[in-house]
TrEMBL record:
Domain (Leucine-binding protein) ranges: 27-366
Gene Ontology annotations of biological process type: amino acid transport
Taxonomic superkingdom: Bacteria
Keyword Cytoplasm: no
UniProt signal peptide: 1-22
Taxonomic lineage from the root: Bacteria, Pseudomonadati, Pseudomonadota, Gammaproteobacteria, Thiotrichales
Keyword match Transport: yes
Protein name from the UniProt record: Branched-chain amino acid ABC transporter substrate-binding protein
InterPro entries, per the entry: Leu-bd, Leu_Ile_Val-bd, Peripla_BP_I
Family, per entry: Belongs to the leucine-binding protein family.
Keyword set, alphabetical order: Amino-acid transport, Signal, Transport
Length: 375
C-alpha cells in the first residue's frame, strides 16, 4: 500500500511539474514586413528568409527568458513596398501581439510605419531602410542595422565625380531613391562635378526613353539612378539602346543578382554600392552564406542584415530578461553585438554607429568588388 501511495504521489508530483512547465512555456511573436509580392518580392522574401533563419537558430537553443521557455514565432506581412499598406500591416501585427518588428525593407514603407510602432511602443529594427528621415523623427523605438543615405550618398557622389565631370541624376521619387539621389547630388558637386540634369520617374515605371533622350543631349559622363532593380535594369538597357556611353551608377537597390538577370548583357560595367562589407569579408559572412543558401538559395541583397536585426532584438530581450517591449527597449540602445555584418551598436537616434560602403561592378555577368570605403 505504501509503495502504491508513493508511486501515486510521484506521478501526481510529476504531472503537476509538467503542467507548471507547460504553463511557463510561452510563444513570442516577432514581426517581419517587406514586399512579398510584386516586382520587389525577391528582395522582400530575402529579408523574410534572413529573419526566419535567425529565429530557427535561436529557437534551437531552447531560450529561457524570465524563467519561461520561449518559442519565437515570425509573423510576416506583405507591405507591397507601399506606404499606405505598410501602416495597415503594422497595425495588424500590433493587434496580433508582436513584441517587435524587423522591417520594413523600403524607406518609403518604413517611415510611415515607424509612427505606428512608436505610438504603440513597439521596437522596430529596419535591416535596409536608409533614408535619413527614418531615425531623424525622434522615435525612441526606431533603429537600423545599415548605414544611412548621407553616408552612402557621400561615397557615391565622390565616386561619380571621379568617373567624370558631368553627372546626370534620376530618382524614383520614393523616400529611398529621392533621398539617396539628393545626397549624391550634394556630394558630387562638393567633389567638383557638374550636375547637368536632375530627372524624376516613379517606382512602377519601365519606359525611360523620354528622360534618357533628354539626358543624352547633355552628354553626361555618369548617369546615377536612385531606385531599385525593377526600374534600374530597363533603364540600363534603354541607355544602351539609345547609344549612351555614360557610366551607369546606382545605390544598394541595384546591387542584386536580379538586376543582372533583368538587364542581361546591358548590365555589364554597371556600378552600384551597398552599405557594409562584401559578404566574403564580413566577420561571419562565409558561414552565413553557406547556411542561408543551403536552405533558401541565392542571397539577393539584405538577408544578412535582416538576420542580424532579429538576433539583435532577441539579444536585447535576453539582456533585459524580458520580452516585454517596455522592458527590453532600453537595452536595444545599449547594443554591442558581433553580427554577421560586423559590430552593431546604435547612436542616440538609433543609427548604426559606424559602417563601410562597398562599391561593386558587373563583370562577366557577376557582381565583383571594386573597393570598400569608410565614410
Amino acid at each position: 500500500m505504501k509503495s502504491t501511495l508513493l508511486a501515486l504521489s510521484v506521478a501526481v508530483a510529476l504531472g503537476l511539474s509538467m503542467t507548471a512547465q507547460a504553463e511557463e512555456a510561452v510563444t513570442v511573436k516577432i514581426g517581419q514586413s517587406s514586399p512579398l509580392t510584386g516586382p520587389q518580392a525577391h528582395i522582400g522574401k530575402d529579408n523574410d528568409n534572413g529573419v526566419r533563419l535567425a529565429i530557427d537558430e535561436i529557437n534551437a537553443t531552447k531560450p529561457v527568458i524570465d524563467g519561461k521557455a520561449v518559442t519565437f514565432e515570425v509573423m510576416s506581412e506583405d507591405d507591397q513596398a507601399d506606404p499606405k499598406t505598410a501602416t495597415i500591416v503594422a497595425q495588424r501585427m500590433i493587434d496580433e501581439g508582436i513584441v517587435g518588428v524587423v522591417g520594413h525593407l523600403n524607406s518609403g514603407a518604413t517611415i510611415p510605419a515607424s509612427k505606428v510602432y512608436a505610438d504603440n511602443d513597439i521596437p522596430q529594427i529596419s535591416p535596409s531602410a536608409t533614408a535619413i528621415k527614418y531615425t531623424a523623427q525622434g522615435f525612441k523605438t526606431a533603429f537600423r542595422v545599415m548605414t544611412n543615405d548621407e553616408q552612402q550618398g557621400k561615397v557615391l557622389g565622390a565616386y561619380a565625380a571621379k568617373l567624370g565631370k558631368k553627372v546626370a541624376i534620376v530618382d524614383d521619387q520614393t523616400a529611398y531613391g529621392q533621398g539617396l539621389a539628393a545626397e549624391v547630388e550634394k556630394a558630387a558637386k562638393a567633389a567638383g562635378a557638374e550636375v547637368v540634369a536632375v530627372e524624376h520617374t516613379n517606382d512602377k515605371a519601365t519606359d525611360f526613353s523620354a528622360i534618357l533622350t533628354s539626358i543624352k543631349g547633355k552628354a553626361p559622363d555618369v548617369v546615377f539612378f536612385g531606385g531599385m532593380d525593377p526600374q534600374g535594369a530597363p533603364m540600363a538597357k534603354q541607355m544602351r539602346q539609345l547609344g549612351m556611353k555614360a557610366q551607369f551608377l546606382g545605390g544598394d537597390g541595384l546591387q542584386t543578382p536580379k538586376f543582372i538577370e533583368l538587364a542581361g548583357a546591358d548590365a555589364e560595367g554597371a556600378i552600384a554600392s551597398i552599405p557594409g562589407l562584401p559578404i566574403e569579408k564580413m566577420p561571419k559572412g562565409a558561414d552565413f552564406k553557406k547556411k542561408f543558401e543551403e536552405k533558401y538559395g541565392q542571397i539577393q541583397l539584405y538577408a544578412p542584415y535582416a538576420y542580424d536585426a532579429a538576433y539583435v532584438m532577441v539579444d536585447a530581450m535576453q539582456r533585459a530578461n524580458s520580452t516585454d517591449p517596455a522592458k527590453y527597449l532600453p537595452e536595444l540602445g545599449k547594443t554591442s553585438f558581433e553580427g554577421v555584418t560586423g559590430k552593431i551598436g546604435f547612436d542616440a537616434k538609433g543609427d548604426l554607429t559606424s559602417g563601410p560602403i562597398t562599391l561593386y561592378t558587373v563583370k562577366g555577368g557577376k557582381w565583383e568588388t571594386l573597393e570598400t570605403v569608410q565614410p
